[in-house]
Write a structure and sequence with these properties.
The protein is of the alpha/beta class and about 300 residues long. It has helices at about 15-20, 40-50, 60-65, 80-85, 110-120, 135-140, 150-155, 155-165, 180-205, 210-220, 225-235, 245-265, 270-280, 285-290, 295-300; strands spanning about 5, 35, 55, 70-75, 100-105, 125-130, 130, 145-150, 165-170. The chain is built from 15 helices and 9 strands. Strands 1, 2, 3, 4, 5, 6, 7, 8 and 9 form a 9-stranded mixed beta sheet that branches.
């Protein structure tokens, strides 16, 4: 198998690249993992973590694509993605006939359609593959890939082996843009669930209930959720170490609300949750914390009544 490229070693990309190496999809002298990141230090950290593997660090995203038949990309925001993709030494500049690009970021549907058209115009093929999952699932190979675009790329044996190493499931939705639609549905539901969970915990505390006991109750009924079980105890301890930064969660919520408006769908519950994240994001510290930090904004905005005498 030839070299395998990976662009973007942030919160998600680092874990995904690690899985390609640890699961032996690539990383040999004949099939190195070729990487680039905006801050080069993360590339060096990856090399130090896998000293026995063949990892080739390039100076630009263009060099990664030029060196590889298949390149994965995972960048944090639409702005970063466009800058890296369309820059003079970016992803698109390295595309030639037959190159595959698999973009795993959560962007607007229009972004994915634009990038797909640009890649195809140069003779390459493009797979949209945003993921459901955060930092932990990225490191343990438990992501869910929501794919659309080139079916031939999705069915390619090397791409398939890579997706299986990085994730527990892959779904193909058809024409380009539908993967992003699926991702925004999932993430808007997740964000709304977290906002409602935060409000419920704040209410329980304000009316004098034992918050830990309420977590136990929630975990025993029909509303139990792996997310609540994982995040709840940390939220009560004010531990919002970022697995999915709040500012990124808000970005996805806003994209989903815009998608719903364009589709003429009533989305008032999610719109209310999006407003909570938007207000929380104004706090620069909370913006970089985990999306569970919306709980802190809810508590701050709550007028806690004085206890009865």
């Amino acid at each position: 198998m030839p070299a395998l490229g990976f662009i973007g070693l942030g919160i998600m990309g680092e874990g995904m690249a690690c899985r390609l190496l640890s699961e032996n999809v690539a990383g040999t002298p004949d099939s190195p993992v070729v990487v680039w990141n905006r801050s080069g230090s993360k590339c060096q950290v990856l090399k130090e973590r896998f000293p026995e593997k063949s990892i080739d660090v390039k100076r630009t995203a263009r060099e990664v694509v030029e060196s590889c038949g298949i390149t994965f990309s995972m960048l944090s925001t639409p702005e970063a993605s466009r800058a890296v993709f369309e820059g003079p030494d970016g992803t698109l500049a390295g595309i030639t006939e037959g190159k595959f690009v698999i973009d795993c970021a959560t962007l607007a549907e229009s972004d994915m359609k634009r990038m797909s058209a640009q890649v195809e115009q140069k003779g390459g093929r493009f797979l949209e593959a945003p993921v459901s999952g955060s930092k932990g699932p990225a490191h343990t190979g438990q992501l869910i890939f929501l794919c659309a675009g080139s079916k031939s790329v999705c069915d390619d044996p090397t791409v398939g082996a890579s997706l299986r190493a990085m994730g527990k499931a892959t779904h193909f939705f058809g024409e380009i843009g539908r993967g992003t639609r699926a991702k925004l549905v999932v993430n808007s539901l997740m964000g709304t669930m977290m906002a409602a969970f935060g409000e419920s915990l704040a209410l329980a505390d304000s009316v004098g209930l034992d918050s830990n006991k309420m977590l136990e109750v929630i975990g025993q009924g029909a509303i139990q959720s792996p997310m609540y079980a994982l995040k709840g105890p940390k939220m009560l301890k004010k531990d919002h170490s970022p697995n999915f930064p709040l500012q990124h969660a808000h970005k996805d919520m806003k994209l989903a609300v815009d998608m719903a408006k364009a589709a003429g769908v009533a989305y008032s519950v999610t719109e209310g949750a999006e407003k909570l994240y938007r207000e929380a994001r104004e706090d620069k510290i909370l913006a970089e914390e985990d999306f569970s930090a919306v709980f802190e904004a809810i508590q701050k905005a709550s007028a806690k009544p004085a206890p009865e005498s």
